[in-house]
Amino acid sequence: MKVLKTIILLFTVLITNTFSAQQKDNCRYIKTPTGYLMVLRQGDDVISNIENLAKTENIPSASFTGIGFASEVTFGFYDFNAKKFNPKTFSKVEMGSLTGSIARNEKGPSIHVHGVATDDQFNAFGGHILSLHVGTGSMEVYVTLNDQKLDRKIEQPLNANVLQLNCKQ
C-alpha cells in the first residue's frame, strides 16, 4: 500500500510539472516599449506565429528582425516571367539574419520575410522566405511597431504583393 501511495504521489508530481512546463511554453511574446519580443521554440512555425501576433494584438504595421536556429527554411526566388516563386529548402541551419514587415491586405495580416541562413560549413543562403520552422534551441524575433496602418496589394503585370504608401498626409 505504501509503494502504491508513493507511485501515485510521483505520478501526480510528474503530471503537475509537465502541465506547469507546458503553461510556461505557451508564452511566445511580451510587450516592449517599441513593440514586442517573441521567443519561439523548437518546431514553432515562425511566419504563422508572427501572423498570430499581428492578429491578436491588432498590429496595423510593423517591421521585425530575428536570429536563431531553424530546422527547415524554404527560400523562394521570384521568377518574373512565370510570376511565381521557385522554392529551395535547407535543413538544420542558423538564421544569421531575419528581417521583414507586417502590413495588411483584404484577408488580414500580410507578412513579408527575407533572411540569410548558414549551414555547418558556413555556406550562406538567402532571399525571400516562404516557410521557416525553429530548430533545436530558439529563435528571437524583435517586432517594432509603426504608428500607421500599411496595406499590401497585388500589382500587375508582375503579380507581385507590394506595400502601399499613403503619401497624402
UniProtKB/TrEMBL annotation:
Residues 30-166 form the PPC domain. Coiled coil: none annotated. Keywords: DNA-binding, Signal. One of its GO terms (molecular function) is DNA binding. It comes from Chryseobacterium indoltheticum. This is DNA-binding protein. Pfam families: PCC (PF03479). Residues 1-21 form the signal peptide. InterPro entries: DNA_bp_PD1, PPC_dom. It comes from the Bacteria. CDD domains: DUF296.
